[in-house]
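To fix ideas at the outset, we first show an illustrative case, written as a sequence plus integers encoding its fold:
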Amino acid sequence: MEDQAHIRTREKPDVQGDAHPKQLLRTIIEDGDNLLPLEHQHILHADQFSAETLLQLFRLAAKYEANPERFSTPLQGKILVSAFYEPSTRTRLSFESAWHRLGGDIMSITDRSTTGIAKGESLADVGEMFNNYADCVVLRDTRQESLMEMRESLRIPIINAGNGLDEHPTQAMADLYTIFKWRPELIKKSLPKDERVSIGIIGVPDKMRTVRSLLKIFSIFPHAFSHVYLFNEEADEANEELIQSFRDRGLNVVQAGSKFDKHVSNLDVVYINAIAWTGDDFETFGTNFVLNKDTPFKEDAIVLHPLARGHELSTDLDDTRFNWYFAQARGAVFLRMALLTCLVHRKGRVLDVV
């Protein structure tokens, strides 16, 4: 469906959002040295890098997206361990597609019962073995602590592809990359207040890793957003404490509760998620929030969703100008291509290619 949606985007660019990445490429700074902090690093949190490093990463992603046929061998001879102990479609296939597009090889694990973990082997020992077999690890696990347990013994980079309720940093990177492609001027620190965008997020930061990571990465670029409205039916102290931490970083977060209808017509971006993983199962939140063709969106607004979706995001929006969620999923491949290239120290193979 996503490939078909991309075809429709190319045929009807006035209907489905997919801004050409060259606009972002031309806008962002050209200094490749800002990518150096990514080399041989673990990717654990959405806010662990500076704005300069993230912007340069987006520039490299835009370079890949603008001309993907020119970059097919940067990771030739490199091996990725793709370990997904929680169900995944987009994230797993996005990472594996990114690695394959760069010429690397993959060892994929989708069931812990087929590994030594089922016999009681520790994740630290598994990580020690990965050091000998691969150059990078992508891990998704229902257990929040698994990431740190494996990290302790790793001498190769590990990427957090979702650890329980905690975080999903590369999803947040892909989300922000999509927003900056849509409005490249948002990267400017001197952006006038009347040119900043208003974003509405339907979700629960304390329970949804995509929402928490998104707010974290937004807090690195607080100058881009006039308001970040949070819509949900949850009100607990843990949520408020987390939100205050983003306000302390300069992000103008507004707890709007269930008053989505009151604000939607003024929102430039609407981001919705309804799923939170809890152990080996998931919970659905915000069943009263539904986006469809009758939602009174601002005329030039865009809708984002990390997918997979349920009834909260109607398919009747798929062929409208508001649909940027398919472009969001597509762009994630190129963002991850850029990130993987940097982590295994192969960026020199692409930065000098015009």
Observations:
- The CA atoms of residues 115 and 121 lie 9 Å apart.
